[in-house]
Amino acid sequence: MQQRPYDLFSPYFKADPFPTFAQMRQDAPIYAHHTPNGRIIWYITRYEDVTAVLRDDVHFCKDPRNAAPPQQPQRHATLQQMINENMLFADPPDHTRLRALVNQAFTPRRVEGLAGAIQATAVTLLEAAAQRDSLELIGDYALPLPVQIISELLGIPPADRTAVSDWSQAIISPGSRGLSYSARRRKLRAFVAYLQSMFAARAAQPQDDLITALVQAEEAGERLSEPELFSMVALLLVTGHETTVNLIGNGTLTLLRHPDQLARLQQGEANWETAVEELLRYDGPVETSTTRWVRQDIVLQGQRLRRGDVVRVVISSANRDAAQFAQPDVLDVSRSDNRHLAFGLGIHYCLGAPLARLEGRIALPLLFARFPTLRLAVPPAELRWRTGVLFRGLETLPLTWEA
Ligand code: HEM
Fold it and tell me: Can you tell me which atom of ligand 1 is nearest the CA of 357?
């Protein structure tokens, strides 16, 4: 079946993707996007299909080698290998082993223990903004908060955090920072060397931090190898940099655009825990899941997907599906039946969900309590959304308040 092409990449689309997703759910729920190099990427937009794909590890996989013809297995490029070979891009049994090991280290007790640090870091950032009399929410608050907290959790000493953040950025978005291939390679090497010395130091002298817990974690007599440790820490740093920032950024903008809902929170008529869930549903940080591959042919909504095809499930679309949510385009900070997919589903369900929730539940109320008259400092049309299909977040969010 020939489908009309949808614009999924322009700044116009990014400014408000939801009408396009609504059209796709209705007319092309399994949509074939044709890439310039002749590839097909399937976009899956209905809640029902998104949940089916996320739960199905038989027909879909994360490691492309499991979807490649057996006689020509694909390999990751060497430079990318250590970054890519993490559990987000692994299938069972590798994924099961890696996830079990990290679960031992990333415990509820460790996450709950961060509440004080999140509160203190948030207050420091907000007081600095009050002193300056200006707040660019993303750069001054939404990004530095989770970056500080993930560094704290891992056990990266404060003096090294700027360098680690710089190396992580080089892994995440080399293009946007204009880095050449060789410059990126140099940074990656420096990062590997730094973490190797960190692993050795923690093995010799354990501390109460996540890196020590990962070095020590053992499952059925097995530990994480050094490349696996590197990949795991890199994954946590990347997710720590790219996701919670958008919960705080998109969440703030959404509340500013819905003053009636914000007022309910400020007057104690609704609670922040439920509100954070609604903000995750309404305009969450992750627009589409990471790439999945068809491992076995499957027919979805009458459309045949073939082994080796690329699949993206559109989380932002599923979370606005009227077949699942009453009045999905209405923000209701006390929505009760809210089984949103902001953290994914199935075996790759977000490891950091409890931490992200805790950060949102602390950061957002503190922001609006410190600046009760917060408002946009620029016309809404000037807001720019970051490009790329994976994440949904603002480049900047300039704010102001009444003195
Ligand atoms: C609001 C913030 C966050 C959101 C919305 C979010 C969302 C997600 C989603 C949708 C997935 C599944 C991706 C897929 O199946 O393709 C995922 C996986 C993951 N997330 Fe998060 N995430 C957030 C914060 C975090 C944080 C703070 C951490 C780490 C500290 C983290 C660590 C991970 C890891 C390690 C995985 C891979 C799990 C696996 O493959 O088993 N996330 N996240």
Answer: 1
